[in-house]
Design a protein that fits this description.
Blueprint: H1 2-5, E1 9-12, E2 20-23, H2 25-29, H3 31-42, E3 52-56, H4 59-71, E4 74-78, E5 88-95, E6 98-105, E7 114-122, H5 126-137, E8 141-150, E9 166-171
Helix pairs in contact: 3-4
Length: 172
């Protein structure tokens, strides 16, 4: 795993001054590293009978779609406001540099759909909690949430429900 994360680039002062952004795009560019990352994110949920992966905009789309294919599941995007064409549910959240919201098409999940949330990084936990809230409002059965990187010092995991299985591959 450490070889993979040697490809993660630190970008200072992005998207705001004082933020050290963890950029996974160099890792995505390397076919072997990208494949290994997808497999590592999917492996803990291999036997969880995942029906759909909920990928969080934007890098969660990249990882989520690949994990969904690996698990033989469908893919559902959670997008920023105004990006989805049909009727949506919206959930606002705070992050380390402001506020935002996620939207999910109404009817994305049905009762009992087994859903895995995927994103690249969990920082303050607001985005992940918004994804959990949206999925549960549609009566999805969440099997877990998986992240490539967790910024432990921001304690984002603390915002997630204690009954949710959480996987993070790199702890910073």
């Amino acid at each position: 795993m450490s070889d993979l994360f040697a490809l993660v680039r630190d970008v200072p002062d992005f998207p705001r001054p004082g933020i050290l952004f963890k950029d996974l795009t160099p890792l995505f560019r390397d076919p072997g590293a990208f494949r290994a990352l997808v497999v590592a994110l999917a492996e803990p949920y291999r036997d969880a009978r995942v029906d759909a992966v909920l990928g969080v905009e934007a890098r969660g789309f990249i990882l989520g779609a690949a994990v969904a294919l690996h698990l033989g599941a469908g893919f559902v995007p959670a997008r920023k406001p105004g990006k989805l064409p049909a009727k949506c549910d919206r959930e606002g959240y705070s992050l380390e540099y402001g506020t935002d919201a996620l939207e999910l098409h109404l009817g994305s999940f049905g009762p009992g759909d087994r859903v895995l949330i995927i994103d690249d990084v969990i920082a303050t936990g607001g985005t992940a909690r918004a994804a959990v809230t949206l999925a549960r409002r549609q009566h999805a059965d969440l099997v877990g949430a998986a992240f490539a990187v967790e910024l432990d010092f921001l304690r984002g995991r603390d915002l997630l429900p204690p009954d949710l299985a959480v996987t993070s591959l790199l702890h910073v």
